[in-house]
Amino acid sequence: MDAVGSLGLVLHWYRTRGSVARTISMAFDITASPAYVWLKFSRQILLFVLQYQPTAKVCSPTAEEIQEYTNAIGEKYPALGDMKVWGAADGLKVLLQKSSDWSVQNQHYNGWTADTYINNVFVFAPDGRIRMCTINAPGSWHDSTMAEYGIYDGLEELFNQHGARVVVDSAFRLSAQPFLIKSSQTDPDNAQGIVLNRQATSLRQLSEWGMRMIQGSFPRLKERLRLEEFGERKIILHLTVLLYNHQASTVGINQILNTFMSRTQGFYSYEGSITETANEVFDM
């Protein structure tokens, strides 16, 4: 297959559900065995390319971006604008095949929902992009435990540099941290605390939209990922994040962006264009 076919194969796989032999082989006029081989190879190539693309990379926001994000959130939620909130974080569970090995099954089994998962935590900005994440963690891990691997350190660094915070739910770190604003189902006793809690709870919808956009854009994540130990699952999840970010950055249309940073609000104006052909991207 050439670069165009390989790129189309990966995107078609992410945008569909079901067996490759049934849903993809006929569309690309290849039998199942080479389809699986080309799919695995093409995912690796696309991951290698996108991880260096500024529009796809997961990276902390700059000082200018943080100012833009806090202004956008402050327009809708003044109490959070005063606190310099720039984003929201939440966890996403992806179904995983069960294992006959009790130790492996125990790692990925979530007793709360009685199923096996791979857990991920994402930090979304008001423009829809993922700015920090932890992926491919065992299903038995708590969201706060996963955030210990890079996310908390990154958020604390941004707070120390810019005084910026993110909104999270009660699943995250119990001890008070200045870089986190935790919303809860129970309002505080004072009026100022009630306003802050309710606006923080409302802003958490930003991360819920982000989770829905990921699963809506890539229906393959709604199926159970294959249980394997050769790194393919990590490639699939990592590439999902990069494709999502590239889409959010270049298409310029998503629910989060339209709500918080639309052109009519004076924040966002899409001027980019997709000029690269598939062959140029694969030849980088």
Defining key terms:
alpha/beta; 2 domains; 6 strands
Describe the structure.
The protein has helices at about 5-15, 20-25, 25-30, 30-50, 65-75, 80, 100-110, 145, 150-160, 190-205, 205-215, 230-250, 255-260, 280; strands at about 85-95, 110, 115-125, 130-140, 165-170, 180. The protein is of the alpha/beta class and about 280 residues long. It folds into two domains: about 5-50; about 65-265. Strands 1, 2, 3, 4, 5 and 6 form a six-stranded mixed β-sheet that branches. A hairpin with a 4-residue loop joins strand 2 (about 110) and strand 3 (about 115-125). The protein starts with a helix and ends with a helix.
Radius of gyration: 20 Å
Give the helix level as a range of percent: 40-55%
Q: Count the E strands.
A: 6
Which structural category fits the helices and strands?
alpha/beta
Number of domains: 2
User: What is the residue-mean pLDDT, rounded to a whole number?
Assistant: 87
Report on the biggest sheet.
Answer: 6 strands, mixed
